[in-house]
Design a protein that fits this description.
208 residues; mainly alpha
């Protein structure tokens, strides 16, 4: 693995991380409603989910999952159902992962943000397909595989943390508006609608 190959991997993965999706939306609204602390719990959940998919891809297990229609659809439809669930909670302004509130977040909300983000990202088949399709392109089979995998894996986690920190910062900028009931209501409706749309888009993902 040369530096040009590594830099190409970094650039590609960074761009993919920055593309708005369910995870980015979740981090943004967590930051708006629970502050940066809640957002970073969510970011850790996303990074852990991607680390799991990266490990599966590195060991070849992800290829088997993608090849199995049953396992692939189980992951996909589980993620779709959970996005719909979160979206409907936000639309109804009930307590949920993406529901804003002017009240102080309850104790333990950080762990809830971590769990919700982990489930959302694990239920995203695009993350699985990305690593299955991407990783083999950057592996130099003429060199030791394990060191390359460790470097790519650590890099992926760091890129997740940095890219989603951008969304956390953007979400935190809206906290001063939470005293406005109208702003909270409109934001919850928008977030809920976007999550439902994300669920519809996820349902359209097919095996490669």
């Amino acid at each position: 693995m040369g530096w040009k190959t590594y830099l190409l991997f970094v650039t590609t993965t960074w761009v993919v991380c920055l593309v708005p999706g369910p995870a980015a939306l979740l981090v943004t609204v967590q930051a708006a409603g629970r502050g940066l602390r809640g957002a970073y719990w969510a970011i850790v959940g996303i990074a852990l989910a991607n680390a799991v998919y990266f490990a599966l891809s590195a060991t070849g297990l992800a290829t088997l999952v993608v090849a199995s229609a049953t396992l692939f659809n189980l992951i996909k439809w589980g993620g779709v159902a959970y996005l719909f669930y979160l979206g409907l909670l936000a639309l109804s302004s009930r307590a949920g992962a993406v529901t804003l509130s002017s009240e102080r977040p309850p104790a333990g909300s950080g762990l809830a943000a971590f769990r919700q983000a982990l489930i959302v990202e694990l239920g995203n088949p695009k993350a699985l397909l990305y690593f299955v399709a991407l990783l083999p392109q950057f592996v130099d089979v003429q060199r030791p595989i394990v060191p390359q995998m460790l470097l790519y894996g650590l890099t992926t986690i760091l890129l997740d943390l940095s890219a989603y920190s951008v969304y956390a910062w953007l979400g935190s900028r809206t906290q001063r508006f939470l005293s406005s009931p109208r702003f909270v209501k409109v934001t919850n409706r928008a977030a809920g609608s976007l999550l439902v749309v994300a669920g519809v888009m996820m349902a359209a993902v097919r095996q490669g």
